[in-house]
Specification:
The protein is of the alpha+beta class and about 325 residues long. The protein has eleven helices and nine strands. It has helices at about 10-15, 20-30, 35-50, 75-80, 125-130, 150-160, 170-175, 200-205, 230-235, 245-260, 265-280, and strands at about 60-70, 80-85, 90-100, 110-115, 140-145, 160-165, 180-185, 190-195, 215-220. The strands form two sheets. Strands 1, 2, 3, 4, 5 and 6 form a six-stranded mixed β-sheet that branches. The radius of gyration is 27 Å and the shape is extended.
Length: about 325
């Protein structure tokens, strides 16, 4: 039937519309970029609106980066140069993407794209700035330690976005030296700190004002020195020490159960987490005392070709007739 939101079309009325993909491909090539972006935003907004916020009526956006390889077209190779090494330049253009996903729905915002290699190469932290303006005013930015630097924190604060960043151990230790304890518990401590950029960071960003010193809170949670959280929580359910649990099997269970399908809300995620813990209790290693072996390293097998290039074939001279 003829959709109400489309103009009258003879092929639809006479039911002669072809199922071949050629027409679709031609129509797709004529589609303007702003129309595709508008459609993606509408789909994103509908998915987000269908889910409940994750934290006290506020939405959390997870920021991370990735790379993709593109078709080896000349225009793409100029915009996103391929990787290169001592053997030359590669074939496939490489684009760097930084994407923010809304936590409850999993919907992604329009990614920020830049070159991974070449003279116009940019970093993930620089691309993150463009994402903050897409996040709602009451949204919370969450990112891993790669984004836990002053530049990203300052950009988030300049756009009035709250943020939760994981820090590397060395950066956290350096900030903690000048921080003030405001609260603590059995295995956690919260600090108050005025985050100041380093001399090198100010030289890299001369546009920062002198008062670029945001007030932040540092949260330290001590879980265990050597064991992971998930395996440690599964072991007490069967009254066994954590080292009796298979790390690989437990980690596989964690990934399969939690990431195989999306939960609709936080209670659903907690239920899936409890289910994963119960399944992980079956990943117990046999008790074999006295069986310990020293670790060994195996020499890497050298490649026989050593990246030698194939010699072009030369035409053999024709015999005299």
């Amino acid at each position: 039937t003829q959709p109400d939101f489309l103009p009258r079309n003879k092929r639809i009325t006479e039911k002669t519309l072809s199922n071949a993909t050629g027409g679709y491909s031609r129509a797709r090539s004529r589609l303007q970029r702003n129309a595709a972006q508008w459609f993606a935003q509408r789909v994103r907004d509908s998915l987000i609106e269908a889910t409940a916020p994750s934290l006290d009526g506020r939405r959390v956006y997870l920021v991370d980066g990735t790379t993709i390889t593109l078709a080896p077209e000349p225009v793409l190779r100029r915009e996103f140069p391929p990787a290169s090494n001592q053997h030359g330049v590669g074939v496939w253009p490489v684009a760097l993407l930084v994407v923010a996903h809304e936590l409850s729905s999993g919907a992604a915002l329009i990614p920020s794209v830049g070159a991974m290699y070449g003279e116009q190469a940019v970093s993930e932290t620089a691309l993150a700035r463009d994402l903050f303006v897409q996040i709602p005013d009451d949204g919370i930015v969450m990112a891993d330690a790669g984004f836990g630097i002053f530049a990203v924190a300052w950009d988030a604060r300049q756009t009035n976005r709250d943020f939760v960043f994981r820090l590397t151990e060395s950066r956290f230790t350096a900030l903690r030296r000048r921080a003030t304890i405001v609260a603590s518990g059995e295995n956690w401590t919260t600090y108050s700190h005025t985050w100041c950029p380093s001399v090198k960071e100010r030289q890299t960003h001369p546009d920062w004002p002198p008062d670029a010193r945001p007030e932040v809170r540092l949260h330290e949670i001590h879980i265990h020195d050597t064991l992971t959280l998930f395996r440690r929580q599964a072991a007490p359910l069967i009254a066994e020490p954590p080292r009796r649990m298979s790390f690989k099997c437990t980690w596989t269970t964690f990934n399969i159960v939690l990431w195989s399908s999306q939960a609709k809300d936080s209670s659903g995620w907690r239920a899936k987490y409890r289910q994963a813990l119960l399944i992980a209790t079956q990943d117990k290693l046999p008790n074999r005392p006295g069986r310990s072996f020293e670790r060994e390293t195996y020499a890497r097998r050298p490649k026989s070709t050593q990246f030698r290039k194939r010699k072009p074939k030369t035409a053999e001279p024709k015999p005299d007739s």
